[in-house]
Amino acid sequence: MDSTPLRPARTAEAGLHDLTLSLPDIALTAGVQRPVVSMWRTRHAAGPNPFPAPVVDSAGSPRFRASEVVAWVERTGLGKNIDFAADVAVRGVLDARPGGGRPTDGLLALLCLRAYASAVLADLAPGDVLDLADELDPDDEFLYREVAALGADLPAVCELADLMASAAYSPGRAAEAVLADRYRAGRADLTRSALAPAALDLVARVVEVVAPADVVASPAPGCGDLLHAVLATPDAVDVPTALVPLGEGRRLARRRLVAHGWDVRTLEDGDLPTEAVVVRQVPEVGVGDVSDEEALARVDEVVLSLGPGQRAVVIGPASALVEAASSPAVESARSALLRTHRLRTAVLLPPGLVVGRSRQRLALWVLGDAHPDVAIGDRWTMVADLSDATVNGPTFDRAMLDDLLTDVVASLDSADSVRAHAFRFARFVRLPEVLARGGSLIESGRGLAQVPRDDRGAAAVRVRELAELLDGEGRRPLDVTVRRGAAQPLHEALLGTLADDGRVRRLPGVRLAESMVVPAPERDPALTRVLGPDELLGAVPWGTRAVDRMRLAAEHPGARLTEPGDVVVTTTPRPAAEVDRDGFSAVVYPAWVLRVVDPDGPGDTPRLLSDVVAREIAAQPSGAKRWRSWRVRMLPADQADDVERALRAVADRAAAARRELDRLEELAGALVDGVAVGVVKIVPGEVDDGVSAAGQDEAIE
């Protein structure tokens, strides 16, 4: 700790009064952009509640008295930070310390004393404060040495603790403000591997539904982020209990939780209470990077600690928990965990959930009892892919999260309940198949054979109505005749699994220079049609761009043209796909080709149709960029040929309709342009259909 004594504040109110804040300080603390604060000053320059006047203006940089800003923000309710007053105290008082030292450990220890004794610490003599610390922590398990280490700074830090507890309305909220300052202070020991708010909220919500208990244990709590997120539920009735092991690395977490007034007890090895749920982050905050094998070893510790009926939620690197193993040792370690049959749900999460590591992916494991009434060879787990999910600030989309939680709860239930549940995200994985196949857990998932639901012929009636409607008005018939059928299970698979099985193949697009792409005159044998994101997204008409065939072969000898029936795909800026029925096209990067190699599959496996694959890809959410996780449906083998013919007829009709729409748009534009400059005039009445183009002037005149 910095040996420079703190400058004591006379009172808590005087402490805030003596602090000053810059406009960037106010914006950062209020959770708004810097121009917003300037707008506050301008909009509230006069009137009954004016923005505080600056007290210092050094070289054009105004500063404002913290107490006046806090009072103004509380009166107006502006900003996005409900802990604004506490955060102001942290930012201002700690920054005001000579030398910039931050007595975080001692300050948190004193906040624990405020929560324990509800006393104004500044009114106590230093000896009395030490006696209070000894009373709360007689064995020096989490705070006594931190209080004693303050030495001559003890009176000043006591005043600071009083100031913050008063500003934040509770010692617990003041402690959270102190911990929030770790990022600005550059505390690598408190920020390394720290989770974003959305990840913490997700773990808390999962714990709430899988084990709604008031006893939460964490064998490696780090600085207590996960425990705080789980215990700080607004629905808690009783004082929650946190179980934390003793040790140097756990003192901070214990202080943080005690400051909230929660019951913190010691977690002994092999003595996990029946009612407790375990939460663990791998690696915990403050620990450096760990290998996938080390991460799985720590998850194994959690599995071994669980007794019958106990559950755990673990969040850690996706590379260890769900993705294809990086080495045989990692594959072996994960297989050993799967053979315990404790894994009930595995969820792949989107990137951006680790502070400071925007590209790292995490995964969530929910651990529970193996199903004793299911034979070992038939046991399963559930997997879910949320890698493309949208995070709305501090939380995931609520509707999406609710559906995921429903899936997680169902995965913990009986076999009959699992089969009857309509899963939105989770997919069914038989453990023997996963252990035999290896590789990614997510890509091993397959759709559950859901209980068939008879629609009483409604779908067949609607198809018939639409076909009859589209066949009218003299159009060429679509020749789609249907009848009611018997409901049967849905068959679907992940594209990644189909690629591993050799049923589909991904071919990359070619990187063409812009100068190589030229307009495509019809039927020019020297040119090869070009297809890319512009065609797939409708920015340019299909078949209007081309590349010289000889130049393509010379500059890109490895370029492969499409075959009839290939699916041309892009994920930039969103997933889109079309079937290239004619083939012999050059696909331009970032578009690529998905080729159905084995549409029938082994045995009597349902058929895989290019048209269906294209439709499934185009229906993906805009953020879904991981093609291996896309699910596609397959059709019964005895219906596939007829469906393929019908879909081609529908596609041809749709192309004709698009051409007609283009001509109608061109007609409208030509009409407006011509009338606007006077070269075209509308004449009431009909024009003779037999008038030639050359005689149009006479007809119009």
UniProtKB/TrEMBL annotation:
<feature type="coiled-coil region">
    <location>
        <begin position="640"/>
        <end position="667"/>
    </location>
</feature>
<protein>
    <recommendedName>
        <fullName>N-6 DNA Methylase</fullName>
    </recommendedName>
</protein>
<keyword id="KW-0175">Coiled coil</keyword>
